[in-house]
Amino acid sequence: MPQQTRVAPERPPDERAPDEAAATARPPGGGLRSLPAGGGVETALLAVTVLATAAGGLARLLGARGLADGLWIAATAAAVGPAVLWVVQALRRGRAGVDLIAVLALAGTLATGEYLAGALIALMLATGRWLDSAAERRAGRDLRQLLAHAPRTARRRTGDGLHAVETVPLADVRVGDLLVVGPGEVVPVDGRIAGTGAVLDESVLTGESAQVERGHGDAVRSGGVNAGGAFDLRATATEQDSTYAEIVRLTRQAGAENAPVIRLADRYAARFLPLALGTAALAWLISGDPVRAVAVLVVATPCPLLLAAPVAIVSGISRAARKGVVVRDGAALETLGRARTVTLDKTGTLTTGRPRVLDVIAAPGRTPAEVLAVAAAVDQYSPHVLAEAITAEAADRGLHLPQVTRVAEHPGRGATGTLADGTRVSVGRHDADRPPAWARAADNRAALDGAATAWVVLDGEPAGVVLLRDPVRHDAPRTVRRLRGAGVTRLVMLTGDRPEPAREIAAVVGLDEVRARQSPADKVHAVQAERARAVTVMVGDGVNDAPALAAADVGVAMGARGASASSEAADIVLTADRVDRLADAAHIAVRSRRIAVQSALGGMLLSLAAMLVAAFGLLPPAPGALLQEVIDVAVILNALRALRPGPGAGPGIDADTEALVRRFAAEHDDLREVVEAVREAADELTDAPAPEALAAVRHVDDLLTTRLLPHEEAEEHELYPALAHALGGPETTATMSRAHTEIHRLAHRVTTHLAQADGNGALAPEQRDDLRACLYGLHSVLRLHFAQEEENYFSLAG
């Protein structure tokens, strides 16, 4: 396996402080998000209103009515000045939102002596502004991790000598310069390989975990990490014109062009404000009594907007957090609730991002266990991502690894070693001029399955091959179905990977469109095109996804293992390594937004009815304020329903059932070798002599009888009844029980054929054909059955 070195980007001794470096390293174009001036006013206002309102309540309980009114007046007056300032700022931007109604309501409460109502309005206004300010300040850090990864210096050759190298600022690199990129270093600028080849980890650019090999003259993009030995790079671009700088610029520009979302409360306030003012003015004009106008404004106090809508959204944010979903602000949750298009990265989002052994194919005369043990014995010393998967698979199967000495890494070729008997072993690439038939068949299968290959070669002869693939997340198909249930009508994959594996995964999970070989710029353009049609969400986990996340209406980052830059550029971060949390967030957003709209509209309708009564002089200001408080309590109680799970929340299982699910999921992992043994036995019936083929079938029959069938029986009698209770009845597991019946039927048929074989171990031709069909059919049924259980049941475990 080629070496994968994990080191931080080079930091020379004279490097500037991080903040200074970030400031000077930013390309022109402004910040990704607008950073607020400070947030000090919001914090101070919140502190004053909380203390004054609470102290006033305590004074009233102690009987000091005058002191209580004075404190509440102070809280109300403290909010008037900032609120007026915010109104002026909004009017300059051409928007008149909820703050204007709040100013009028605050003035109305002071005029009518409803001081407690004024203090409460001030408190709610201060709380909402402080939360908005905190969310904006947090969103202003989105480029930090992008810039931390970017190299700031380069090593440039100044002559032909080994030590004729100087370290220069990256800005001083010119087209044509010959640079040296050491092991683990980040490629500083775009260029072409000069001299020997290179092995690069370009996951930061493409999101794909597989490493790539570049030969002499091949183009290389900045931002990749050298995963092999040192190589020379002929610069073809300056720092500002290179790929990684373009990613930073795209991220910033996409965020800057992404217009801020107008809060739901402001949208309704824009309609409610002229109605309230018009009603108050008309009541004053017709009656000639200004008290009627004040009474109208008092009952028009926008508490359904100031309180109910934000309470519903904040309740949704709180519920999402309990699901492992961090939502940066209420606008993100509101927008997610209106989303109709979701674009998704592939690696690490729809797939696990961790390659896994798909199969081990052995040369004739060898066993898969032998091949895997030898491969793991060599690869246990390699940090390569595929080597880790091979070593983990051998450990899961409990294989004994032979002793290997003189292990060496060969970038681009793999790893080599020597067994105790002197046999030379290599694991990685194998370029045979005339590969045997079984090896050609293995290559064909790898191409069909979209799998990577690690060839095991003993003394120059291929002994077997390990097929590896990044598997689809068990919860991905269910996530797609639940997203459609939440109102999403279009799902698109945007990936830097090849079209073939991308299309296969899209078919498995049920996507509408696939766009493969996408660069960061391509992803941004694709997201912008989708946004022109509908509210669009982008989901990703790598640095290369950061520009697209910023370009979307809502960016969602897989934050459990993904790049920090993508998390910083996102509006929503999934802290659990589960893509189904996206579906949870979507259902929570839809429900919270619906409750917020219900509360706001219901409260405004009730206020409108009270305004009409007050306009006719039937509701004085003081009773009107009391009625408004009753309306406020009603709509807030309704808004708090967003804290509870609603329809579409997904099935829940108790702790005992979850323990069962985890137990059987672990057994599935152990039984994967049994499933593959069934296929290998069927192959033996085609290729191997009769005695060897029959021995392979007898081995499979023993595995089925002692391991697989007891597992299926236990599922039927332990797991399925527990899941049926949680999922809504026995019909929910009926189809899976039918699969158990078919598995038992085919396994019994295999046993029957073996019983009918004669004493010499011979099978009649018709038996051989039927037995082969039984084994291939059993293998297909088992793979499908395992996949269905993992998708529908095992993914329920948190």
UniProtKB/TrEMBL annotation:
Lineage: Bacteria, Bacillati, Actinomycetota, Actinomycetes, Kitasatosporales
Assigned protein family: Belongs to the cation transport ATPase (P-type) (TC 3.A.3) family. Type IB subfamily.
Region (Disordered): 1-34
The keyword Transmembrane belongs to this UniProt entry's keyword annotation: yes
Domain of life: Bacteria
Source organism per UniProt: Kitasatospora saccharophila
Start-end of Basic and acidic residues biased regions: 8-19
TM annotation in the entry: 44-63, 70-88, 100-128, 268-287, 293-314, 600-619
InterPro entries for this protein: ATPase_P-typ_cyto_dom_N (IPR023299), ATPase_P-typ_P_site (IPR018303), ATPase_P-typ_TM_dom_sf (IPR023298), ATPase_P-typ_transduc_dom_A_sf (IPR008250), ATPase_P-type_domA (IPR059000), Cation_Transport_ATPase_IB (IPR051014), HAD-like_sf (IPR036412), HAD_sf (IPR023214)
Keyword field: ATP-binding, Cell membrane, Membrane, Metal-binding, Nucleotide-binding, Transmembrane, Transmembrane helix
Short name of any one Pfam family annotated for the protein: Hydrolase
PANTHER family from the UniProt entry: CADMIUM/ZINC-TRANSPORTING ATPASE HMA2-RELATED, CADMIUM_ZINC-TRANSPORTING ATPASE HMA4-RELATED
Topology in the lipid bilayer: Multi-pass membrane protein
Record domain P-type ATPase A: where: 150-251
Protein name stated in the entry: Heavy metal translocating P-type ATPase
Subcellular location: Cell membrane
Limits of the Hemerythrin-like domain: 661-796
